[in-house]
Write a structure and sequence with these properties.
The structure holds two protein chains of two kinds.
Chain A (H helix, E strand, L loop, with lengths): L1 H8 L2 H10 L3 H24 L8 H29 L2 H7 L3 H5 L5 H27 L1 H5 L4 H28 L3 H18 L3 H10 L3 E2 L6 E2 H24 L3 H27 L7 H23 L7 H9 L5 H21 L4 H28 L4 H16 L3 H5 L3 H10 L2 H8 L5 E3 L2 E3 L1 H25 L6
Antiparallel strand pairs in A: 1-2, 3-4
Chain B lengths: L1 E10 L2 E11 L4 E5 L6 H8 L7 E6 L2 E2 L4 H7 E4 L11 H11 L4 H14 L15 H13 L5 E5 L7 H16 L3 E5 L3 H7 L2 E6 L2 E6 L1 H9 L2 E7 L3 H10 L3 E7 L2 E6 L3 H13 L4 E6 L4 H8 L6
Helix pairs in contact in B: 3-4, 6-7, 8-11
The chains are: A mainly alpha, B alpha/beta.
Chain lengths: 473, 308
């Protein structure tokens, strides 16, 4: 505990960043702009509203003002935080000072926490300076102090996540410009794609939505928080790995994915066993989280490999259980078995359980084979990983789109193309058939066939490339 | 103090280091020279734990750069060829930051800072903002940072690059002072005469291989197998050259800037005999001496300009 406190509080990087950063003029400009936006929103709300005819209207107005201030602050925090972290590591690289840090006795965890800590300290300052304006809400009533505290908690969490995202690209890219473009590109894409889903998720959270029923009920916020924590841990480990390669970091990444995947599958089994329609918000939110896990697992294991230059280290990496493809397939299948077992135990018909398991196993393996083959066929180029990072928000958000637009077979089918899990729900619901090259097949079968077909095609391409004679030097 | 065993490094398909074996003793000032692209910076980055070798291993003060990286960082001070300083900081803030980064206990930091500022002659600049420092001053500041944790080994990559002559002389004096303090110096530089002034041994790297290593005179003896001689006459240099060429034991006879240069492998008696014969010819002999070979000569003789 004392060691952790030392890393957080007696951190030379944090002190250095605060010294340099807080002397910059742009910091004062950002803070002024932040307060001007919030102040204007509050003033506009207070002065434009007509005088209340009934005192009972005031709590409603308080809630509305709180909502306006929360969403404005969320938007600004999400926009400002990456600008503070995108140049943190790439900037050191451009300034030729990163080697001085790496050659010092600083641990990578200190460097990452120091850089992130600076961004969060500044965001903390922004949030603290907004308190007088948020306090106006208490004059109107309708919002409990606990709710205000919870909204600040969400803001802090959002700042941590987007800050880590910026830091991740900063560690990965050589130039600050590239890191900034990619981080903001992903944020903008995620924002556009989740426009429909965000209010629904916010509404679910505000009414205390749970996943599952009865004794298996899990608060949605806890479920989302756990996954946000998983995502933050993933980004944190990846940043460290880009700074100084360690087999231990990779092993932790593997363990993280494994635990999150298994928990996800178990929870999904419980959620599905309640017999809800897939269009209900709970399974959709759960799917969203599961897709996140699958996407990140594939990403970490296949698409962004960082081989060690030293053969001894590389051999250690390859020898590690968590780096063997069959082990990962085993983990995926164990998760699916867990899910099927949970369904069976809760009374789902055996035929349905088996078909779910078969479908998921087929599509999961198809997904793994496709990503692996694509990666090899494209020569393991970092650009491909970049493209995948850019597509990640789409992967995460697509399955949530039907929530806003109503039940849409086409969108749902698209969702199944990036993750096998939405297809599971179609087994419970009579989804429309899909026309595939003149044949009419049901949706899960179309999904399975398309994945296996793609896997076979890429496998054949790989085999062809292997048999081609080597070009002369 | 520094030992490299079969050190190899590849950048994709390019072989930057090819089985480098090297040993530097404690307290030695070692000049590491070679043409551009020879693998000097790669070696230095491996020693500084910034790069993993593709094969082989390096040890600093007995610690492996792969398995005991933190121990290596504790005993090694690294100054890269290009380095950045943080413009928004003052000199003492910059040094205090690195003092913390090298885990110098808080109560000792002030004294340590004073010591390195005095050693690098930056005491008067303590409160100066780094962006107002000249290139030479920044170089000193980086050296001060390198000395903060009192490392036993100093690995300096092109420490004098981009400095004006005065700053170079100052830096050379500083490095000489560090050798006197018993530090082991591993210096890579293109400015060879300056290295020769304070480096006791030299390693010459070409295309990732160590082509020569040892004391300058030892290397030269190994290369030349004899003495380098210089002769200056006032009249008829060609006749003098012909006489030297006729003498057994002389080789590589050439005229450069009005001076006759040649290698001589015979005994001292043979050399004295040659001098007498030249004097007898009445050519106006004004100089007959062993030529002083410097590091540049050694470098040019040993390397062939191959880049990997």
């Amino acid at each position: 505990m004392r060691r952790l406190l030392d890393v957080l509080l007696d951190n030379p990087i944090l002190l250095k960043e605060l010294r340099i950063g807080l002397r910059e003029r742009k910091i004062f400009l950002i803070q002024s702009l932040y307060l001007v936006v919030l102040g204007s929103a509050t003033a506009l709300f207070l002065f434009s509203a007509s005088a209340p005819t009934d005192l009972l209207e005031l709590p409603d107005r308080g809630r509305l003002l709180h909502g306006i201030l929360f969403w404005s602050q969320l938007a600004m925090v999400v926009l400002i935080t990456p600008s503070l972290t995108c140049g943190q590591i790439s900037g050191e690289r451009e300034n030729h000072s990163l080697d001085l840090l790496r050659a010092s006795r600083l641990r990578t965890v200190e460097i990452v926490l120091g850089k992130l800590g600076y961004a969060l300290a500044y965001v903390g300052l922004l949030l603290a300076s907004s308190l007088p304006m948020v306090a106006v809400v208490f004059l109107l009533g309708g919002v409990a102090p606990g709710e205000v505290a919870a909204s600040y908690g969400v803001l802090a969490l959002a700042a941590t996540l987007v800050g880590l995202l910026g830091l991740f690209f900063s560690a990965r890219e050589q130039k600050t410009g590239h890191a900034t473009n990619q981080a903001y590109g992903i944020l903008i894409l995620a924002f556009i794609l989740s426009l429909g889903a965000l209010p629904a998720l916010a509404e679910m959270l505000s009414r205390g939505q749970t996943l599952g029923t009865g004794r298996f009920a899990i608060p949605l916020w806890l479920y989302l928080l756990a996954h946000a924590g998983g995502l933050a841990a993933f980004l944190f480990l990846k940043v460290q790995n880009h700074l100084r390669r360690r087999v231990a970091h990779e092993l932790w990444l593997g363990r993280l994915f494994m635990v999150v995947w298994l928990i996800n599958c178990g929870l999904l089994g419980l959620v599905m066993s309640t017999g809800n329609s897939w269009t209900d918000p709970e399974p959709v939110a759960a799917t969203w989280c599961a897709v996140l896990t699958v996407a990140l697992a594939s990403l970490g294991c296949f698409l962004d490999p960082q081989p060690f230059a030293a053969p001894r280290e590389e051999a250690r990496r390859r020898a590690g259980l968590a780096f063997r493809p069959w082990f990962w397939h085993g983990v995926l299948l164990t998760g699916l078995a867990l899910m099927a077992g949970a369904q069976g135990a809760l009374g789902a018909p055996i035929g349905q359980v088996l078909s779910t398991l078969g479908l998921c196993a087929g599509v999961s393996l198809g997904f793994a084979v496709v990503t692996r083959n694509l990666h090899i066929l494209l020569g393991g180029r970092p650009r491909f990983a970049t493209l995948y990072y850019a597509l990640l928000p789409a992967v995460l958000v697509l399955p949530t789109l039907p929530l806003a637009s109503g039940e849409s077979a086409r969108t749902f089918w698209l969702g199944t193309q990036v993750s096998p899990l939405p297809a599971v729900w179609s087994l419970w619901n009579d989804m429309p058939d899909v026309l595939l090259g003149g044949w009419t097949v049901d949706l899960p079968m179309a999904c399975l066939l398309s994945w296996l077909g793609l896997a076979a095609l890429l496998g054949a391409l790989r085999a062809l490339r292997r048999t081609r004679p080597a070009r002369e030097a | 103090m520094i030992r490299c065993c079969g050190l190899t490094h590849r950048y994709d398909q390019r072989l930057a280091l090819d089985g480098l074996d090297l040993q530097v003793e404690a307290g030695e000032a070692f000049a590491f020279i070679g043409p551009n692209g020879a693998g000097k910076t790669t070696t230095i980055r491996i020693l500084a734990t910034l790069l993993e070798p593709t094969a082989g291993e390096a040890f600093v003060a007995g610690f492996s750069t792969l398995d005991q990286a933190d121990e290596v960082r504790r005993v090694l001070g690294y100054m890269p060829d290009f380095f950045g300083v943080y413009d928004g900081m003052r000199v003492w803030e910059y040094l205090e930051f690195f003092a913390a980064a090298y885990r110098i206990p808080r109560p000792d930091r002030r004294r340590t800072l004073d010591d390195v500022l005095e050693l690098t002659d930056l005491g008067a600049r303590r409160e100066t903002n780094i962006e107002h420092l000249s290139k030479g001053m920044r170089q000193r500041l980086c050296l001060a940072k390198t000395l903060l944790h009192d490392p036993q080994v100093l690995v300096l990559d092109e420490p004098a690059s981009g400095l004006d002559p005065r700053a170079r002389i100052d830096l050379k004096e500083l490095l000489r002072e560090l050798t006197r303090m018993g530090k082991t110096l591993f210096v890579s530089s293109h400015i060879l005469p300056e290295l020769a002034d304070f480096c006791s041994t030299v390693g010459i790297l070409e295309a990732g291989r160590l082509v020569a290593c040892g004391r300058v005179d030892e290397i030269l003896r190994a290369v030349d197998q004899g003495r380098s001689m210089r002769v200056r006459v006032l009249r008829d240099l060609e006749k003098a050259a012909a006489l030297v060429e006729e003498t057994s034991g002389s080789s590589r006879v050439r005229v450069q800037d009005g001076v006759l240069l040649f290698q001589f492998e015979g005994s001292l008696e043979d050399l004295a005999d040659l001098a007498e014969r030249l004097a007898d010819q009445r050519l106006g002999l004004v100089e007959f001496a062993e030529a002083r070979t410097d590091l540049e000569d050694v470098f040019m003789r040993v390397t062939q300009g191959v880049v990997c």
